[in-house]
UniProtKB/TrEMBL annotation:
InterPro entries: DnaJ_C3_Co-chaperones, DnaJ_domain, J_dom_sf, TPR-like_helical_dom_sf, TPR_rpt. PROSITE patterns: DNAJ_2, TPR. The keyword Coiled coil applies. It comes from Phoxinus phoxinus. Keywords: Coiled coil, Disulfide bond, Endoplasmic reticulum, Repeat, Signal, TPR repeat, Unfolded protein response. It holds the Pfam family TPR_19. Its main location: endoplasmic reticulum. It is found in: Endoplasmic reticulum. This is DnaJ homolog subfamily C member 3. GO terms for cellular component: endoplasmic reticulum.
Amino acid sequence: MDSGRRRGLNSVLSSLSLLCVVLDLQLDGVLGATPVEIEHHLEMGRKLLAAGQLAEALSHYHSAVEGDSKNYLTYYKRAAVFLAMGKSKSALPDLTQAIQLKPDFLAARLQRGNILLKQGSTQEAREDFQAVLKRSPDHEEAHDQLHKADELELLQEEAHETYHHGDYTTTVQALERVIELSPWDPESRELRAECFIRLGEPRKAIMDLTPATRLRADNRAGFLKLSQLHYSLGEHHDSLNHVRECLKLDQDDKECFAHYKQVKKLSKQLDSAEELISEQRYQEAIDKYESVMRTEPNVAFYINKAKERICFCLVKMKEAEEALDICSEAHQREPQNIHILRDRAEAYILMQEYEKAVEDYQEAREFDQENQEIREGLDRAQKLLKLSRKRDYYKILGVSRSANKQEIIKAYRKLAQQWHPDNFQSEADKKEAEKRFIEIASAKEVLTDPEMRQKFDSGEDPLDPENHQGGGGGGNREWPFGFNPFENGNFHFKFQYN
């Protein structure tokens, strides 16, 4: 029985030995590479690099490094591809490996020193440049870069000192040269961004923080700061995108998640409000913008935006008095906002206060002389003002500009009955009544005809002979439909109020 067990054990051991041999042969086939194959990869990498096909070149250099991990040149050449691809962090370990394999490889030391200098690591960069100069004292580039490393270190110290003293303008000036020398240093960009924030220039801060987020592997703080800056400027979609980048790095980050919930809620309300406006559901849009002000009462942009759009909605709803109040409040908050001035001008037009409408449109034009909508609005308001000094059909009937046809006819019937010439005895009163009666009938004719009313609302009197080619002279309006029933002073008739 023991001999049987021994035979079984020997059989297993033999099988394992054979398996190891087979695996060893297979691994040699996979991982090993002949000098000819390595040279082929290097040659292909060189050609593809020269052709600008960086990803393909990198693949061949990977194979060359795997085939011969002791060749310092393969690491150096792969580092060159990484640098061409803008991946300096990936190039750094390859340059370090090349230097370890060949300590007197000056090209690798110089290249590593240049990367370290651009990353703001002055001490490490200085060591590489000094190592090059130790072996090659007359190396011109190494001398220049060593001077830059010394200059950078002094500027970094100056920038931090002036920042801690609260002199942000001087700090920005110093950091301009710092960033020129070390564009891959996130700390310098973050410091300058902080200065811009304190100087009240958030957009410049964004321009520094955006590249800084790509220079750190885990820059949640940078993404959060970017999100907060965009949020404060009213750019809620950009804010949402950046805070999501933070949560991609760590979905449990408490600060980013809390900010994400706030931005998402507000962004949804703003988008919904604008969609309601596009659908002409103005009262619902007003309600939504009131929700926006409750959601974010502390950021001026969102309060101003809400009031501006509520002003717009009220004008569209022809709620002139309420619109005027909100538009005036919005104008106080943003005196140069041409949209608020435009909407308040339209509210004044609804209230037939044409002079004030003209003033608002003129003020808006001063801020934007090229805006076609403002120019057209001013032209219309000026025409309406001119018309109002001649004849205003809304005032004649005593109705608002938003009155519907039923309200216009009701007002017409009441006034026609009041000013019918048969109600007056003296010749003078009768003539005055005839004049008023004609005006009332003219007003009804214009305001109950959609096309004529549209012309009048645009600043043109459709019954003014001056507005019609071939029209006869005379300053007085003829009776509508071509005859005046009062031409004969003795003419009497019974008026039908239909």
